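Hey forum,

I'm writing up a methods section and want to include a predicted complex as supplementary material. The small molecule is zinc ion. I've pasted the protein sequence and the SMILES. Can someone with a working setup run it? I'll credit the forum in the acknowledgements.
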Amino acid sequence: MRVVVAMMSHETNTFSPVPTPLSSFGPGGPAYGQGVIDAYGGTNTCLAAFLDIFSEAGGDIVTPIAGTAMPSAPVQAEAYQTMSDAICEEIDKGCDVLCLELHGAMVAETTDDGEGTLLKRIRTMRPDLPIAVALDLHANITDDIMDNCTVLAGYKTYPHIDTYSTGARAGEILRRSLEGSIKPVMAWGRRPMLAHTLCMNTAVSPMKDLIDRGLEAEARDVLDVSVFGGFPLADIPQPGLSVVVVADGNEAAARATADGILGEAWDKRADFVWDSEPLAKSVAKAKTLTEGPILLIDHADNCASGGTEDTTAVLAEIMRQGLEDVAVFAIRDAEAVETLIAAGVGATVTLPLGGKVDMPTIQRKGEPIEVTGRVRAITDGQFTVTGPMMTGTRAHLGRTVVLDTGKIEIVITESNHEPWDLGCFRSVGIEPTHKRYLMLKSRVHYRAGFEPIAKHIIECDGVGVTSSDYSLFPFEKVERPAYPLDVDMAF
Ligand SMILES: [Zn+2]
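Reply by user p_vandermeer:
Happy to help. Structure tokens for the complex are below, copy them as they are.
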């Protein structure tokens, strides 16, 4: 049994100015062959679960490619072609089972549906190939995805800490169907809801309610339920919330479960709309709190949703209001890193920080902020993730510098990385539990590593292409009506 296992993962923010070449799909590009196993074997990823399940089943496993990039603009045409070709060429050499870790919200320069286009191509080559697909909770599900795979599962958590078990769910159902003990059938549906990702935390209502409903159905009469919040910052015809149910031959049960959860999601649609307060008010509130760490969440510039990770509005407000004992992760600014490394540890430097990238889709120019500080540390930006999310994988921040203004320690990186693991600070010599304030450019994933140490969490509405204010974004392709762009729409 020849089993092809591959990963091609990208959440595309079509409004992001951050480009997505092949080189962004890993340190220096995707991993190939044995490099895939070296990078992802034994980690908390879907791919690792596929490897384990089909090794145990006696499969002859081949791993043509594994690429995952931080969210950013549509994947460059050549990158999409290269990754798709690597997978298809391996299938062409002979393949009995295919396991794919994809994202579900990939847009390439050549297609609005990166996953659906790939799966359709594979299905055309091999109409009967058993295919298991694992997706992110932020997938925008399409007919082309659903019509061209055998079984599909998505994360049940956000922050995404169940990545291995998601791969295990999809892989195990496929394995059991191959041995003939079950007959998986799928039903799915979607609602035209651009749910705010800030409202998709699976630990609380409304997302928790939908996930719980799925778990109840799994205990009753279906094999597996995935609730996809969708990724709303994608100007494609049908982004939105969707539900996929896999049942053992019982299509009616799958259909009823999907429809029930979708109905509940639609009824709760107003709870999926995030309301922001003015930034100055949020920072002022933080200033009145005494016990730290107090998390200041700069959610409009989350690089793991397509943010540039270099906007300065929240940092500027923190400086304006004079907060002290603050650590910031991170400002991505390769130019500043270069300058600070040249100056060396111990040097005092004044420089324009961040704001190097313009954001034409939201009609904002980058706004650097002038800071003066002492270079505290210089590192290669590498560490192994030990927290619950992506456990065991290697983080690559690029060359990294800590600049200490006296009140604020700012981590400045060459590459983009969302802070979901305490290693973001510890790897550069900052102990996060000892700081009063931690400013994090994140939306929900920070909860994986930082919520357990936080005394307070304050969401700060800054500037960036991951803002929750949809009025900033020029949606053109999204089919209307869509909630909450058309707030009074009926369904
Ligand atoms: Zn996600």
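Some notes you might quote in the supplement: DSSP finds 13 helices and 20 strands in the chain. The chain has a mean pLDDT of 97.
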